[in-house]
Amino acid sequence: MTQRALITGITGQDGSYLAEFLLARGYTVHGLVRRRTPEALSNLASVLEDPARRARLVLHDGDLADPLALARVVERADAGEVYHLAGQTHVGRSFAAPEATIATTGLGAVRVLEAVRAHRDRTRREVRYYQAGSSEMFGAARAPQDERTPFAPRSPYGAAKVLAHHATVVAREAYGLFAVNGILFNHESPRRPEEFVTRKVACAAARIRLDPARRLALGNLDARRDWGHARDYVEAMWRMLQHDRPLDWVVATGVAHSVRELLEVAFGRVGLDWRDHVDVDPALLRPLDVEDLRGDASRARAELGWRPRTSFEELVLELTEAELERAQAVSVGAAHAR
Ligand code: G4F
Questions:
Q1: The overall pTM is greater than 0.90
Q2: How far apart are CA 166 and CA 188, in angstroms?
Q3: What are the tens digits of pLDDT across the range 35-51?
Q4: I need a labelling partner for 37 at 20 to 30 A (CA). Which of 9, 112, 170, 269 fits?
Q5: Ligand 1 — pocket residues by CB below 6 A?
């Protein structure tokens, strides 16, 4: 029988990589989408343009703010695996919109969980649920962080993810739902929106290479993150749902780098010294920041057989090269238009 999965947040970085991963394994993939504009669907372009994969992709309109719509989508998808990835994912923005972040990222997860539980009870078929947790939940906790590290969030976003995490554990323990938390450390790709620091730096390095008069404004350069590749991390999500027990899992590379080191690699790739092109803008500093995240993914390595395949340098070079290609295409297009 064909396996069916439902992905909330299918148009995002992780959702699109996960959809490709599952389609390659023969799944029929259902996705919850909030907007069907060409920009919103751009991460799914390769699937949408491929008739063989398109035939096994079903998009449903819906919104995390609407519990009835969510319940309807869960019923229609009738999936054996539900990956809940949707939400407000920008930590900095969560300080400006704390209530909206708790509503989408925290309560949104509670709503999806309730819809999944109701569907399981009605059909009497097991539905496995994946909650997209975040290393941001560890906040001030000392590195390295693993599944036993207590949460100490330092942002409304982190607090919302802690709420979703505990709601997932409660659903597992109270109702016997196969519900897991993936506690993923930062994971990036060329599909990342430019508001996140890796892609912002890669875009700037490429643009400044072509136009050295441009400047890059950043906030905290000392923050350290454990950066991996999103393509590697979606495989860990799938492996968690194939495991024989519903557990919580840390997914990380185990190596942390600072924003300065990120600048070093990206600007080094384009032959520039970042110190000549970067300004620290106090407006980009967060009211509170997480200084040092570095995960210990020993459990995922031992029990899921998962390991990251992309090093920090490979990741930053891939991002920067993708932006160089885009920036060069734009400048060639502009030259032709003249
Ligand atoms: O790229 P960031 O915005 O990622 P952040 O805050 O670590 O959150 C990401 O990872 C989490 C997992 O830990 C996810 F849950 C979350 O959804 C998201 O994917 O910022 C990384 C660091 C921060 O310390 C930030 O203060 O970079 C620092 N930074 C310095 N200048 C900046 C900038 N971040 C952004 N976004 N923009 C800047 O100009």
A1: yes
A2: 26
A3: 899 999 999 999 999 99
A4: 112
A5: 89, 91-92, 134-136, 185-186, 195-197, 200, 218-220, 223, 225, 259, 284, 286, 289, 293
